[in-house]
Prior knowledge:
The complex is a heterodimer.
Chain A: H1 2-29, H2 32-56, H3 65-78, E1 79-80, E2 85-86, H4 89-111, H5 116-136, E3 157-158, E4 161-162, E5 167-169, E6 172-174, H6 176-199, H7 202-212, H8 214-219, H9 224-250, H10 260-273, H11 278-306, H12 313-331, H13 340-364
Antiparallel strand pairs in A: 1-2, 3-4, 5-6
Helix pairs in contact in A: 1-2, 2-6, 2-9, 2-10, 2-11, 3-4, 3-5, 3-9, 4-9, 7-9, 10-11, 11-12
Chain B: E1 4-13, E2 16-26, E3 31-36, H1 42-49, E4 56-61, E5 64-65, H2 71-76, E6 79-82, H3 94-101, H4 108-121, H5 123-127, H6 138-150, E7 156-160, H7 168-183, E8 187-191, H8 195-201, E9 204-209, E10 212-218, H9 219-224, H10 226-232
Parallel strand pairs in B: 3-8, 3-9, 6-7, 7-8
Antiparallel strand pairs in B: 1-2, 1-4, 4-5, 9-10
Amino acid sequence: MNARKRAWLAALALALGLAVLPFALDGLLGPYWVRVLDFALLYAMLALGLNIVVGYAGLLDLGYIAFYGVGAYLYALLASPQFGIHWPFWAVLPLGAALAALFGILLGTPTLRLRGDYLAIVTLGFGEIIRIFLNNLDAPVNITNGPQGITAIDAVHLGSFSLGRRQEILGVNVPSTVLYYYLFLLCMLAVVFVSLRLENSRIGRAWVAIREDEVAAEAMGIPTRNVKLLAFAMGASFGGLAGGLFASFQGFVSPESFNLMESIMILCMIVLGGMGNIPGVILGAVLLTALPEALRYVGDWQRHLLGRVVVDPADLRMLLFGLALVLMMLFRPAGLWPSRRRQREFAATGEVAEQEQASLFDARR
Amino acid sequence: MKLLSVERLQVAYGRIQAVRALDLQVGEGEAVCLIGANGAGKTTTLKAIAGLLPCRGSIHFDGRSLGQQPAHAIARLGLTLVPEGRGIFPRMSVLENLQMGAYVRRDRQAVKSDLEEVFALLPRLAERKTQKAGLFSGGEQQMLALGRALMSRPRLLMLDEPSMGLAPVMVQTVFGIIRQIIQRGVSLLLVEQNAHLALKLCQRGYVLENGAVGLADPADELAANPAVRAAYLGEA
């Protein structure tokens, strides 16, 4: 009873903390950081989606950002002056998630037989194909507006209440970024809920089995083909949802937002945070979104202390980023906040490796 | 009506014909072994029956044609393969491995009591429930693979080289367990290098030569056959 009470109190405190967080950030660091927070939530959704594919099912996907792009462009096309279509967000967002899931299956089907490095290369190619398509679909018929991208995308709105501008709620003046924060938070919680349910389901266990030994999983009666496709589709749908939110928040999309670097960044988030563990993945996403922004200050400090900028903050960012990853691989190879299963897996990997080598040898004979 | 009946089975790896026109049957409650030299097509035959390899010919299980059904669908019919090299999930615990064996079953109560039975049959696993399977010795892994197969309530158990790489004492233990499984009424199709042990355990045997059945006789007749003794039982 007492423990239960404490859990409720903790949840309540967390909810309150999350509710006032944007105002606190606004007051302490300025309105720009609320925007960063919004992006952190978007990236957390993306990372949770990729976590299903990579963390749960063990399928290395290097083109994940394509699904983000699919969701974003669908929103942009169906809610902007581009075609003069202005569908409401509650229709377009689920549609974007569904279309992304379809693309997930589209990518998954031909890659089912591939594993490891080979799968990574094909998915990488898929990500690039989508970006290049978006870049070139302005001729012969102009669909995506090419490299210029699509502008003036509708903000999320219900009737006359729009998240795209400042609103007066109960006497409090709430800026657009804070309004979006609440929407993103709700969506992320939904994504977390779905992830949690999947993790502890039959499907979740099937994914672990496939990660371990695909042939044995098949022999246990797991329809590995469909279960892998489901991982692709579920992961992609989260990406599609985040993409739609991104388009409405930003009001502008262009192919440049969906390049390979973004895919790698999201992968880094889950590796850094702790693959397979939901809190870890969110932590990784928040850290890697906030870190580059925080490093912008380093330029100011340099100017202040040394009179000029010696090391460009943008360069420093990649440098520190690389350093952080190397340090992590050395000291926390399972991530900052790994799941208990992963922790065990990593602890055992050395000992099991020998055994696996033996079974690999068997398979090749 | 035979439980498993295979007719004119053909399997090829590219242009190499590994199994050509093979016929074999396993009756309900019967224990049958396939013996033969390396490359005779024993493992290939088991894999083809389990649906892990594309093949031609007809395979009927319990009167139903398996056709080109995928492996997971075949596993659901109660035809369980314990592959060569055991195929356990190395980074899962013993308990998780056993639970994966019951993946397709929905009768939770029965799964629970089956788990108890497996632990009773294999007490060594019960002692090490939470340990990671990859850290086990070869013999223990083979036991786990058998236990996991039992969790699927197989009607026909197909074992591929259960003695491979095991210490002689462990081979005896594992075969003792297999004997107990047979006594429970599970039918068995066994592929085994150790022809001596296999023929002692099973009622009938097939001798495979170059992807086809060379001899098919009751096990004691095969064991007494001078040609078999010379070729597979290591007697001059």
